[in-house]
Amino acid sequence: DTAVSQTPKYLVTQMGNDKSIKCEQNLGHDTMYWYKQDSKKFLKIMFSYNNKELIINETVPNRFSPKSPDKAHLNLHINSLELGDSAVYFCASSQEAGVTETQYFGPGTRLLVL
Amino acid sequence: GQNIDQPTEMTATEGAIVQINCTYQTSGFNGLFWYQQHAGEAPTFLSYNVLDGLEEKGRFSSFLSRSKGYSYLLLKELQMKDSASYLCAGMDSNYQLIWGAGTKLIIKP
User: Fold this and answer.
1) Alpha-carbon distance B86 to A44, whole Å?
2) Which residues on neighbouring strands pair with residue A87, listed in sequence order?
3) How far is it, in rounded angstroms, from Cα B33 to Cα B54?
4) Which residues in chain B are contacts of A4 at CB distance < 8 A?
5) CA of B93 to nearest chain A CA: how many angstroms apart?
6) Cα–Cα distance measured from residue B26 to residue A22, given in angstroms and rounded to the nearest whole number
7) What is the longest distance spanned by two Cα atoms in chain B?
């Protein structure tokens, strides 16, 4: 069974569109994350979220918004896509926030904005 | 500022030993992680160090020196499947991971 899953795996879309990426974890973890990995391979945290707190990286444009229908899901919605949004987006989860925990990653969503 | 430095690329021979170094600067420190990422795949957890010294786990070992802001990942008896990027990440005082760009390890027969 996949621990952290994301859909879609590949997403090709036009500039200006709105798109969502879904993430689900079946590990029973309390905290989920979204990362962006650019062409230089740096992983940059975008959001971390648990039932109590949403932490937003201040460099993330407000076109990006996380939506969590329940503890096992954290979806990423992107408005008005731009060319620079092209990257691989990874979802991850950990047992809880505010402590040292290993993060488990999903397979990634490869977004290409044309 | 917060920063993680590691070499961009290394090459080693199958069966040999390789050491991948990482230096870190974080706001506070709650440990140092190493992850492995094969091309086109997700990062997977390898090791975690928060105390000084060497942690051994099979063919992989990780070392930490907090006073020097330095860590290394040691891979022994290299296999072709070890060809991957190795990501160093420091956990800051907010328990956020600060990632390096990864070291691409190329294994040659």
Assistant:
1) 16
2) A111
3) 13
4) 42
5) 9
6) 31
7) 43
Low-confidence ranges of chain B (pLDDT < 70): none
For chain B, give the secondary structure using H, E and C. CCEEECCCEEEEECCCCEEEEEEEECCCCCCEEEEEECCCCCCEEEEEECCCEEEEECCEEEEEECCCCEEEEEECCCCHHHCEEEEEEEECCCCCEEECCCEEEEEEC
Q: Rounded to whole angstroms, how far apart are CA atoms A3 and A76?
A: 18
Buried b (16+ CB within 10 A) or exposed e, B52-65: eeeeeeeebbbbbe
Which residue in chain B is spatially nearest to A47 when comparing CA positions?
B96
- For A31-69, b where at least 16 C-beta lie within 10 A, e where not — what string? bbbbbbbeeebbbebbbbbbeeeebeeeebeeebbbebe
Which chain A residues have a beta carbon less than 8 Å from that of B96? 45, 48, 55
Q: What are phi and psi of A8, to 5 degrees?
A: -80, 170
Provide the residue type at B87 as one letter.
L
pLDDT tens for A51-102 read 767 877 878 999 999 988 888 999 999 999 999 999 999 999 998 766 777 8
Q: In angstroms, rounded to a whole number, what is the distance separating the alpha carbons of residues B93 and A59? A: 19
Helix (H, G, I), strand (E, B) or coil at A9: coil
Contact B37, B87 (CB under 8 A): yes
Retrieve residue A87's tokens: 């990257």
